[in-house]
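Write out a sequence, fold above all:
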Amino acid sequence: MSRQRIDSGRVIVLAAMAALLAGSSAPLDAAEKMKPEELVAKHLEAIGPADVRASMKTRYFVGQGTWRVLIGGRAQMPGDVFQASEGDSVSFRFDTGTNPTYYGEHLVYNGDDVHILQGFQGGRSPLGEFFTANKGLLREGLFGGVTSTAWPLPQVAARKAKLKYAGLKKVEGRELHRLDYKPNKGSGSVNIQLFFDPENYQHVQTTYRYKIPGRMGASPDESAGQQPTYVNVTETFSNFQEIDGLTLPVKWKVAYDRTNQGDGPGSMVAEWEIGFTSAVHNKPIDPALYELGAKAE
């Protein structure tokens, strides 16, 4: 078991210019023709050597975070964060302590079943509701990216997921490789896109786009008038550091955006900003951490 603290003449000129232009377009041409398997292989190399990746059986991250509601209310609340993972199993918790309004989040896949904490007194949080409706995302190991051992890209063949390389796309002002990911089963109608840095092939973002159909009306005419609700959840990863021979992100932001166009729940924008402060590999995971409400010691 290892533990690591995270710190934070004109013809000549024209010929040269032509060569430079040709050279500058080559990476883009190559990128447009890249196969999904090539992108995945480069991404895995960016995490670390294959033998080191294989040697990490469990991972335990601890840190702090802040929850904010930006639209649909106003709130800001700190919380303690832990994430424990072993193989395909993962337990993520954002714990606000004894706050009576918002308990936080606890999302669990124990290898068999998905369990989700009731985050509010009156029911699950919007993020909890999203994953309750789309449990396959937790079973697939997508949530948390490479921060957990459940990340599916090292075993994408075994998972029988369908991958499609979509080229370089501009995301928030930067060009990123986009890989569309479709689980073999259990993803429902969620559109999943993974984004990678073209310089180092680190996984820097995942977006989940989900459409909730409008509710049925009392008549066909009423039903036709019901508008859908759109939910987008975006994970962003940054501040990559070397931890026990692997390059992993220690900053993680989860953004939730619900746009209501009908008579369902109102629009809402919220975010969770997380910073991991310590990491442990190959520590036995306490089975209790996969029980709802269980806290890290």
Remarks:
- Confidence is low (pLDDT under 50) at residues 9-31, 216-225.
